[in-house]
């Protein structure tokens, strides 16, 4: 991922048909706010060039004060065309993108801590 974001991302989703494309959910690795969205601004980073270039995808996510923690098992994708992406937070929220990360929508809230998210299709 970009150097300013760091190299800690617990959630990684591979594109089901394109080996050069994946999405990473970065987490802050410092001692101040460990394992939360960097700067309190959650985003997913996408590469279509096997990691040579990254694009920040945050449309629909909180612009600030979004101190999300996402376990590595709580970020997944489906095999749809386009690929759907889904992640759950330890704060009990579930977020979805039906357009390969271009936009995000909260689809559940007020849940207990989300440990894992799975797609069955």
Can you describe this structure?
By secondary structure, the protein is mainly β. The protein has one domain (about 10-110). Helices cover about 0% and strands about 25% of the residues. It has strands at about 10-15, 20-25, 45, 55, 75, 85-90, 95, 105-110. A 4-stranded antiparallel β-sheet has the order 1-2-3-4, with no helix packed on it. A 4-stranded antiparallel β-sheet has the order 5-6-7-8, with no helix packed on it. The radius of gyration is 13 Å and the shape is globular.
Would you spell out the secondary-structure blueprint of this structure?
Layout: E1 9-14, E2 22-26, E3 44-47, E4 55-57, E5 75-77, E6 85-88, E7 94-97, E8 105-108
Antiparallel strand pairs: 1-2, 2-3, 3-4, 5-6, 6-7, 7-8
TL;DR of this structure?
The protein is mainly β and 121 residues long. It has strands at 9-14, 22-26, 44-47, 55-57, 75-77, 85-88, 94-97, 105-108. The protein has a 4-stranded antiparallel sheet, with no helix packed on it. Strands 5-6-7-8 form a 4-stranded antiparallel sheet, with no helix packed on it.
């Amino acid at each position: 991922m970009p150097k300013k974001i760091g190299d800690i991302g617990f959630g990684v989703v591979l594109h089901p048909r394109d080996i050069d494309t994946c999405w990473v959910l970065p987490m802050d690795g410092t001692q101040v706010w460990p394992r939360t969205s960097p700067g309190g601004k959650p985003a997913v980073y996408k590469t279509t060039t096997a990691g040579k270039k990254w694009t920040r995808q945050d449309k629909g996510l909180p612009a600030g004060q979004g101190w999300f923690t996402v376990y590595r098992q709580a970020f997944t994708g489906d095999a749809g065309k386009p690929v759907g992406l889904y992640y759950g937070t330890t704060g009990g929220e579930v977020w979805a993108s039906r357009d390969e990360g271009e936009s995000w929508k909260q689809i559940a809230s007020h849940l207990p801590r989300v440990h894992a998210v799975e797609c069955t299709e």
